[in-house]
Amino acid sequence: MSIVWSYSSLKTFQQCPKKYYHTKVAKDIKEPDTQATLYGKQAHAVAEEHVRDGAPVPPAFDYMKGTLDVLNKIEGEKHCEVKLGLTKDLQACDFSAKNVWWHGIADLVVLNKDKGLAHSVDYKTSKSARYADVKQLDLVAVGIFAKFPEIQRVKSGLVFVVSKEFVRAKHHREMIPKYMEKPAQDVARIEAALQNGVWNPVQGPLCKFCAVKQCEYNRS
């Protein structure tokens, strides 16, 4: 049995299979937006409109302008909110194709096809890069390699617009099997859970904030 997955859904399963089941499989529970997620969506929209259209940065987000100006100076074709999709054999497909296996969205991709180089940027509105996880950059890089055959290298970065921190990673086309090794193992675990119907809850410090109220570990 196959699934369509993303970096965020994989993280949900790793956090708690029961939460994954209710939010991604049964879909009987929808996680509400929080103040943080709503702010993040606003910041992403500001960045997209400024880079793509040259729209002025609103005063409330003026702290982002210096960072966005640096990104604007990167040489190449700039593409915002790039939807990426992969089939199970790692071929490019549309984000919502019938045979899509993985999909994700790159906040900003700058293509320099003459040099075989792309820059990939993911905006973060967390106050610190302390817990930055570059694994999502691996997946986006694989999606870029599939979508743009001319690209041989990807310079990736998590851009923390509040703290003005950059967490960088470099990706090379020949390393695609390595980038996909661990995610494929985790996806196999999800597929096994789908087959056997076992979605064990995992207790953790975030349980009291979870939207799955019927779980034995949710004490909210």
In short:
With 220 residues, the chain is of the alpha+beta class. The protein is built from 6 helices and 5 strands, in the order H-H-H-H-E-E-E-H-E-E-H. It has helices spanning 7-15, 17-25, 35-53, 65-72, 135-147, 176-196, and strands at residues 77-86, 102-112, 117-124, 153-160, 165-172.
Describe what you observe in this structure.
The structure is a single chain. This protein is of the alpha+beta class and 220 residues long. The protein has a single domain (7-209), classed as Alpha-Beta Complex (Lambda Exonuclease, Chain A), CATH 3.90.320. The protein is built from six helices and five strands. The chain has helices at residues 7-15, 17-25, 35-53, 65-72, 135-147, 176-196; strands at 77-86, 102-112, 117-124, 153-160, 165-172. A five-stranded mixed sheet has the order 1-2-3-4-5. The mean pLDDT is 94.
Q: Helix fraction?
A: 25-40%
Q: Give the overall pLDDT as a whole number.
A: 94
Overall, the morphology is globular
Q: What is the CATH architecture annotation? A: Alpha-Beta Complex
Beta strand count: 5
Structural class category:
alpha+beta
Strand order of the largest sheet: 1-2-3-4-5
Which residues form runs of ≥5 with pLDDT under 50? none
CATH first level: which class? Alpha Beta
Properties at a glance:
220 residues, Lambda Exonuclease, Chain A, five-stranded mixed sheet, 6 helices
Write the layout of secondary structure elements.
Blueprint: H1 7-15, H2 17-25, H3 35-53, H4 65-72, E1 77-86, E2 102-112, E3 117-124, H5 135-147, E4 153-160, E5 165-172, H6 176-196
Parallel strand pairs: 3-4
Antiparallel strand pairs: 1-2, 2-3, 4-5
